[in-house]
From TrEMBL, chains A, B:
This is Proline--tRNA ligase. The lineage of its organism: Bacteria, Thermotogati, Thermotogota, Thermotogae, Thermotogales. NCBIfam families: PRK09194.1 (NF006625), proS_fam_II (TIGR00409). It comes from Thermosipho atlanticus DSM 15807. Consists of three domains: the N-terminal catalytic domain, the editing domain and the C-terminal anticodon-binding domain. Catalyzes the attachment of proline to tRNA(Pro) in a two-step reaction: proline is first activated by ATP to form Pro-AMP and then transferred to the acceptor end of tRNA(Pro). As ProRS can inadvertently accommodate and process non-cognate amino acids such as alanine and cysteine, to avoid such errors it has two additional distinct editing activities against alanine. One activity is designated as 'pretransfer' editing and involves the tRNA(Pro)-independent hydrolysis of activated Ala-AMP.
Length: 564, 564
């Protein structure tokens, strides 16, 4: 391909709405254009990269015996009514009516459709297990689409579904997908980790997330040299608790005017932050709940939800708190609190003479002791684990990094086959609901995540396997240099190299800038060194190699550099 | 792939809703399943074939320098309001609202989107010409979806758009697409023809259709050995007109009770059909119109619409005719008719003493002569040309065949760039609207058309290039036969042959039936002949070859047979 003919309009300026690097870089480097909030057109460079990602995903799926199908994007409402999700799915589901006023949805996912598909076609245990997958658009009407292709309303997913007659069979297939997903991560060239993502809400079935590291990721990952990794929302706290070996002092109510945050209280009272206990009020299915955590730790909302098994739980609003307790936020505390369930982090067990809100504007209690001043009947792990805290497996300090979820695999069990009444006949002639697994991979998200993980101030740094072109030949100067560039271009094309020639009538500076911005793994420049019989091959990551100006030698060097 | 693991549920019975062979065969052979009217899931066999079709289309597009992009399926209403098509497109357009009540459509086509895309990005004549294409789902809410994947509501299209600064440049690109489309037809292995499809309604720009022959096709194609081909809706009549060299006789009104059709009138009055003139009433923008054609010819509605330049023209309803003229349909005629525009086919010029309706129930006029009994002021070509009529180019008798439109290319001109105000700067610094071309190819339709053209009573006969598998090894018997089949399977896989092994525990009869039904180009059977050291290779089209039971020899023979 010739750059002069390539439709890749690069922009010099930062797009106004770019919150993170990939959003800015993919637009500036001419990969994507926004059509509406969360809806994008993929230009030729992005389409090429997406095809490469799709191909890697497809190959790894085929290798484990999953079979590719293609289900419709528009799905009839009746299927979702059968599973009970038509009304439950919420406003993220895009709905429409056809000309006959029949209801459809733009599929956010395909469990219903695939389960109905196999109904009456997979009838015997002899046909199991089977895995079906597709690569197709999905739709989620995010209330605030953001982060470019990372959180879009229209996006490309690979979704797979497996059907089994036993949990052992599901375990086997699940493991195959887990391995395939790791291979996909390796082949797309991203640093990643696999974390357990079991969630109490869906019955404790096994689930794993595949997370690509990136500073801008929405997931906080904690991991250890021993191989353990988890999201900070779920890693259990296995550290020691500080023991306050002191006598109980007398409870005091202290005037603390306008002193609200933990830091302000500590400063005002001249104590360490960990002397304070945070009292937080939530509202859920069963009304208000107070959670208590040591002042130097953050409350882990996911752990609290899981402990209460209440997905509807939300932080109480200041006005709700004022109405219920007559106290502004910042002065809440457990002393004297009635009719509210109190749940405390294990860390409180060993605290003595601590400080809590006075349940009265501008007052705090000091020298509080549980058991004496108020009662705690529920203890659990309620804190967010941080880098440096001990690994729950081996005890070594955890490391922390942010990441972007690209894959999620899940043991569904019989959730859909039961509600939709889809059964097979077992070896004894009994009808049983299928045991299912489901496996998602964000294809267009991989494009964004790669840029988040791999870029510098000058632009994108594509991994070779998903680069839109592996090599760019930058034509500098005219005469012999240009002639040799053209000859080299033809030669490399014939050898099957995925090469672009930058033959545009712009300055070398612009060409170099664009090559860095777009992020080709290798840039071959036939320039100044050409009079000495040399050509420069520069890796996007910086390394420069001079090589004899012979097509064969250059091809060989390119081969070596791309392999590394 | 092993058939025992393949998800290809074949059906023994005819699906209830199948109107044409492809609809029945694709369901029976386990390629597609219906999800809702005009909405299908493609099972693994169909997905494989579709990927092969997509790949052929993609390669031919890339070869002519078109660049692949991917535009969103959901398109904001504002773009369609700019072009004026939001309200004009009609009920075939599927519309929806997002959670913020913004209007979107599921794109039936992408002219608006692509034109907006290049706005402000293609700014100079130096960047032209450029061609962009995508392969993606399209949506048309057909009032009565039918014929399976041939007329679906959700379907896969390749759509391309080109931008130019001159008509000459458009001509050049148009020609490239025309040649690429012919190559696609050849590569997918279908008999086809290219017909001119210029339509007066869109300004007389050039347009061609690529039609695959099929008995069930909705297009009637007339073609000639000289290379000419056209749709019967548009082929001009170049035959001779019969001259009635006779004296004018006296007009008579004859009682013809319950005699309505041309055939009934001819029989009742004992005359040839061509002695009668058909009088047909239409209703259009300017009210009622009467069209006259010789009794032995069919009126060509498209020619009449083109002559009147009125796309809203429709056949008048019997109740409208009764109300307006007081005559039931079947007794209409031009004699005594007032205030209605009369348009006659050239064939009437030479007719004498003909028969028309009496404009009175149960009566016909005989010995009618125009000029004397009524006036004709407008003459044109109004008839449907039939096989046997002369070729408009060389005069030889035309042949006729039915076909399915797979490709349509079109010189759009400045229609969208003008209404949407999208301009480039020419070499003199003047802003001008882009000249555009658009080029559609029905990808999922190709799947259906191939089956319509290539099948027999036993099933589908896939062309090698788009067959889901090129070869099936049918395992018959156990022991050595099975062992050799497995060895052969592994060998062929290693050689890169696209092979399926039918290792199911079913009878040979079922395997043979399914192989024919699914339509693999070659079936290798290690069966009875194996004791004599032979293996049978049968082409789906019938030819049987015996070959030595050696992997190498079999591979060689397969190679030869697939090439043919």
């Amino acid at each position: 391909m010739r750059f002069s003919q390539l439709y890749a309009p690069t922009l010099r300026e930062e797009p106004a709405d770019a919150e993170i690097p990939s959003q800015s870089l993919l637009q500036r480097a001419g990969f994507i254009r926004k059509v509406a909030a969360g809806i994008y057109t993929y230009l030729p460079l992005a389409r090429k990269t997406l095809l490469k990602i799709e191909n890697i995903v497809r190959e790894e799926m085929n290798k484990i015996g999953a079979q590719e199908i293609l289900m419709p994007i528009i799905q009839p409402a009746e299927l979702w009514e059968k599973s009970g999700r038509w009304d439950d799915y919420g406003p993220e589901m895009m709905k429409l009516k056809d000309r006959h006023e029949r209801d459809f949805t733009l599929g956010p996912t395909h469990e219903e459709l695939v389960t109905e598909l196999i109904k009456n076609e997979l009838t015997s245990y002899k046909q199991l297990p089977i895995s079906l997958y597709q690569i197709a658009n999905k739709y989620r009407d995010e209330i605030r689409p953001r982060f470019g292709v990372l959180r879009a309303r229209e996006f490309i997913m690979k979704d797979a579904y497996s059907f089994h007659d036993s949990w052992e069979s599901l375990d086997e297939t699940y493991l195959k997908f887990k391995e395939a997903y790791s291979k996909i991560m390796e082949r797309v060239g991203l640093r990643y980790t696999v974390i357990e993502a079991s969630s109490g809400a869906i019955g404790g079935s096994e689930s794993h997330e595949f997370v690509a590291f990136a500073n801008t990721g929405e997931s906080n990952i904690l991991y250890c040299d021993c191989g353990y990794a988890g999201s900070d929302e779920r890693v259990p706290y296995k550290g020691e608790y500080r023991i306050y070996d002191e006598e109980e002092k007398s409870l005091e109510l202290v005037f603390t005017p306008n002193v609200k945050t933990v830091e302000q209280v500590a400063q005002f009272l001249n104590v360490e932050v960990r002397r304070i206990v945070k009292s937080l009020i939530f509202k859920g299915r069963e009304g208000f709940v107070m959670a208590l955590v040591p002042g130097d730790k953050e409350l882990n909302f996911e752990k609290l939800k899981a402990y209460l098994n209440d997905q509807s739980l939300q932080m109480a609003l200041p006005e709700e708190i004022l109405e219920k307790f007559g106290v502004p936020i910042g002065f809440l505390g457990p002393v004297g609190l009635e009719d509210v369930r109190i749940i405390a982090d294990h860390g409180l067990k060993y605290m003595r003479n601590f400080i809590v809100g006075g349940m009265k504007k501008d007052y705090h209690y000091v020298n509080v002791n549980h058991g004496r001043d108020f009662k705690i009947q529920e203890w659990t792990d309620l804190i967010i684990v941080e880098p440096g805290d001990p690994c729950p497996i081996c005890g070594k300090p955890l490391k922390g990094e942010k990441g972007i979820e690209l894959g999620h695999i899940f043991k569904l069990g019989t959730k859909y086959s039961e509600t939709m009444n889809v059964k097979y006949m077992d070896s004894e002639g009994k009808l049983k609901p299928f045991i299912m697994g489901c496996y998602g991979w964000g294809v267009s998200r991989t494009l964004g995540a790669a840029v988040e993980q791999l870029h510098d101030d000058n632009g994108i740094i594509w991994p070779v396997s998903i680069a839109p072109f592996e090599v760019v030949i930058t034509v500098v100067g005219r005469g012999n240099e240009r002639q040799f560039s053209e000859k080299l271009y033809k030669y490399l094309l014939e050898q099957g190299v995925d090469v672009l020639i930058d033959d545009r009538e712009v300055s070398p500076g612009v060409k170099f800038k664009d090559a860095d911005l777009i992020g080709f793994p290798l840039r071959v420049t036939v320039g100044r060194a050409f009079k000495n019989g040399k050509v420069e091959i520069k890796k996007r990551t910086g390394e420069i190699n001079l090589v004899d100006a012979s097509e064969g030698k250059i091809f060989e060097m390119i081969g070596n550099l791309l392999k590394k």
